[in-house]
Amino acid sequence: MDSPPGQPTVVTLILALLLVLYLALRRRAGAGGAKNRSYPPVAGTVLHQLFNFGRLMEYHTELSRRYRTFRMLTPSSSYIYTVEPANVEYILKTNFSNYGKGSKVHEVGEDLLGDGIFSVDGAKWRHQRKVASHEFSTRVLRDYSTGVFRDTAAELAGIVAADAGEKVDMQDLLLRSTLDSIFTVGFGVRLGVLSGSSKEGAAFAKAFDDASEQVLHRFLDPFWKAKRFLNFSLETAMKRSVRTINDFVYAVVDKKIEQMGRDQQEFAKKEDILSRFLVERESDPGCFDNKYLRDIILNFVIAGRDTTAGTLSWFLYVLCRNQHIQDKVAEEVRAAATSGDGDLGAPELVACLTDDAIGKMHYLHAALTETLRLYPAVPIDVKCCFSDDTLPDGYAVNKGDMVHYQPYQMGRMQFLWGADAEEFRPERWLDDGGVFVPESPFKFTAFQAGPRVCLGKEFAYRQMKIFAAVLLYLFRFEMWDANATVGYRAMLTLKMDGPLYVRASLRR
């Protein structure tokens, strides 16, 4: 019998316990011979992480308050976790070449991420980074994506308006909205998930979420390969999810190639990322195949869909619990977009959301950034140590160890943010004149830093600001159940574990 999603089976726990205890004793005995190396304190084993899988973020927060750097023992290596900004800077920038994804990260995520930018090192990473860097810097993509975000935000506002005063699941609407918009930007295809017109798109979205959860679970399950070989437990569902994802994506790619064959000159004018990659491939047919295209675009989708939808969901959740902040954001949007004059509908409002208007919304930017501090889209990130090393805090790292920096836990550390670290306070990001002031990317790590810093940072902020500005200008949101709280689903991105039921009422 399968255990509930995200929970280890009894057999897995017993086997993991025996194996980890044996290896822990052997590793401890071996460490005794390294007299000049100081290792991070052992806070537990992979077994403890499996037991706490449903509350993994809180569990690691508790440990991080005790040990700013600690390790968990696994059958093959140590998992090292840190919230020290100096360590983060060291692994992401100073000694970047010694910390990469490595073979283990690639193997665990390969079914979903393939050879995409989030799971590779070396030549493949450099190629994708170069191409992506070029694409994100072009005015063509900026203008095209902004238009898509405006259109989708207006469509979303229409759906919310139709259900004003009713019970609405905003997380579901935001996930559907961002999937529609990011798929349009990435593939040049309107899925119709927001309107509910595409069953295939909805199936793709569910499969994508389920596969993402299982990838995270694999990091903590030493027997996942055996389960995959035996087609057992959650690995059975993983195969189904990946099949659904691949069938959908390859159908889109094939259709694009067919369109390209009919009219190459017209096709070359298209602005979506897949079309631009296909045009590039025409000039160098051997540069990548359809599988590589699938991997590149899927990594783009996970970066642009899950992250922004999750952040906007947490943003609305905290604003429902802080109505004065919600009203302050709405007032700023009204002043910046319309100079405070008149009431606009969604179509007129989105036309006013120019770069200049969005740039004036410092409080909105601060509120979104504060959301990312407490609810980072990627709550934990991992690098593989390629050779024995010592971190700036003096702790040793062995070749093959997996080093994790923890954006979620870092956002809750008082030694970094003060006594009010767990309080939602956008003002901490503003100077005396109300202008946004950024923090070090090694302290606020929501977008990584160093050579792998997120290329889509401004892209993501623009999408989130447009969606947030439209929603808060037009509506006031409150929790459907005033006493309700929400948790998260343990997966690669920090997504809520259930619906975000709210009541939306028109502001005017």
UniProtKB/TrEMBL annotation:
<dbReference type="GO" id="GO:0020037">
    <property type="term" value="F:heme binding"/>
</dbReference>
<keyword id="KW-0479">Metal-binding</keyword>
<keyword id="KW-0560">Oxidoreductase</keyword>
<keyword id="KW-0472">Membrane</keyword>
<feature type="binding site" description="axial binding residue">
    <location>
        <position position="454"/>
    </location>
    <ligand>
        <name>heme</name>
    </ligand>
</feature>
<comment type="similarity">
    <text>Belongs to the cytochrome P450 family.</text>
</comment>
<keyword id="KW-0408">Iron</keyword>
<dbReference type="Pfam" id="PF00067">
    <property type="entry name" value="p450"/>
</dbReference>
<keyword id="KW-0812">Transmembrane</keyword>
<dbReference type="InterPro" id="IPR036396">
    <property type="entry name" value="Cyt_P450_sf"/>
</dbReference>
<dbReference type="InterPro" id="IPR001128">
    <property type="entry name" value="Cyt_P450"/>
</dbReference>
<dbReference type="GO" id="GO:0005506">
    <property type="term" value="F:iron ion binding"/>
</dbReference>
<keyword id="KW-1133">Transmembrane helix</keyword>
<dbReference type="InterPro" id="IPR002401">
    <property type="entry name" value="Cyt_P450_E_grp-I"/>
</dbReference>
<keyword id="KW-0349">Heme</keyword>
<protein>
    <recommendedName>
        <fullName>Cytochrome P450 704C1</fullName>
    </recommendedName>
</protein>
<feature type="transmembrane region" description="Helical">
    <location>
        <begin position="6"/>
        <end position="25"/>
    </location>
</feature>
<dbReference type="GO" id="GO:0004497">
    <property type="term" value="F:monooxygenase activity"/>
</dbReference>
<dbReference type="GO" id="GO:0016705">
    <property type="term" value="F:oxidoreductase activity, acting on paired donors, with incorporation or reduction of molecular oxygen"/>
</dbReference>
